[in-house]
Amino acid sequence: MSRCTAPTYGHRTASGAAACPACSSRSYRSSYNSYPSYSSYSSTPSSSSGSSGSSSRSSSSRSSKARWSRAVSPVYYTQAEITALTPIRQTVENLVVTKPELRDVFLCHAWDDRQDAAKELHDLLVSNGVSVWFSEKDIGLGVPLMRAIDKGLANSRIGLVLVTPALLRRLPQEGIADKELSALLARDQLVPIVHNTTYEALRDVSPLLASRTGLSTAEETMKEVAAKLTELVAYEPENA
Questions:
Q1: Residues 24 and 71 in one domain
Q2: Secondary structure of 75-111 as H, E, C letters
Q3: What does the pLDDT read at residue 11?
Q4: In terms of domains, do 38 and 89 share one?
Q5: Which residues span the domain enclosing 208?
Q6: 100 & 195 share domain
Q7: Do 62 and 31 reside in the same domain of the chain?
Q8: How many domains are contained in the chain?
Q9: What pLDDT, on a 0 to 100 scale, did the predictor assign at position 19?
Q10: Among residues 82, 48, 42, which one has the least CA distance to residue 62?
């Protein structure tokens, strides 16, 4: 007696039903209705499809290596990140040659973040071998604050601005962070790092800074962001 081959062919197509020796003489419609439709196999539950889809798009968009990345580097970028960071990299390469004594980066942050996100980023960069001007480490007791900041800005190749909810609250008050940011915006040496907020929120406070594409911890960890910054400033001239 002929046996149904549904486990093999699935009967989800007319050819599958026709190929079955037991069911080929039956109506295709009746056998089709006995099994789940193809859509039930291909779709995923709505509760998980959003996050998995977003994660997939995020990881697939980071598929490019920067020209300054080493061949064995595990770090990948979006094309927007490479476009934004390329002029910064050119500044780094030029200043490493012309002013080798400068520090790698100046870290601009809100006072409220000095023991939190700013310290985390600072510590990650330093552990990667990056020299960082950081107010918590570089302003001693009795040193005039603004003078120390001016010297820090002048003696660093590029500036990092850690954009957090605390910074967004501070900027309208036109305090120290605002003065640091103004000095950095005047030069093509600025990388915004958006953390626990969005570019949309930044645009409401500082449209000029929001116009600069940088890096974000929305889809990457602070450690991964620090790895990109480390690659950005790591440069040794061939004739060094």
A1: no
A2: CCECHHHHHHHHHHHHHHHHHHHHCCCCEEEEEECCH
A3: 44
A4: no
A5: 56-233
A6: yes
A7: no
A8: 2
A9: 52
A10: 82
Q: First vs last Cα of the chain: how many Å apart? A: 83
Handedness of CA 40, 45, 50, 56 (dihedral sign): negative
d(CA 33, CA 37) in angstroms, rounded, equals 8
Are 228 and 94 spatial neighbours (Cβ–Cβ below 8 Å)?
no
Q: Is residue 196 assigned to a domain?
A: yes
Residue 85 inside a domain? The answer is: yes
Q: What is the pLDDT of residues 61-72, one digit of tens each?
A: 888 999 999 999
Assess whether 35 and 67 both reside in one domain.
Answer: no
Residue 1 is assigned to a structural domain of this protein? no
Report the distance separating Cα 187 and Cα 29, nearest Å. 70
Together in a domain, 28 and 120: no
Weakest-pLDDT range from 45-59, 86-100, 137-151: 45-59
pLDDT tens, position by position, 222-239: 999 999 999 999 999 886
Tens of pLDDT, residue by residue over 144-166, are 667 778 888 889 999 999 999 99
C-alpha to C-alpha distance for 3 and 194, rounded to whole angstroms: 63
Q: What is the CATH number of the domain that holds 210?
A: 3.40.50.10140
Specify the residue for token string 């990109």. Answer: 228
37 and 60 together in one domain? no
Mean pLDDT of 105-127: 95
Dihedral sign computed on CA atoms, order 86, 223, 120, 235: negative
Residue 111: burial class (beta carbons within 10 Å; 0-12, 13-18, 19+): middle
Q: Are residues 19 and 103 in the same domain?
A: no
According to DSSP, the β-strands at 215-216 and 103-108 are: unpaired
Length of the chain as a residue count: 240
Phi-psi region of 142 (alpha: psi -120 to 50; beta: other; left: phi over 0): left
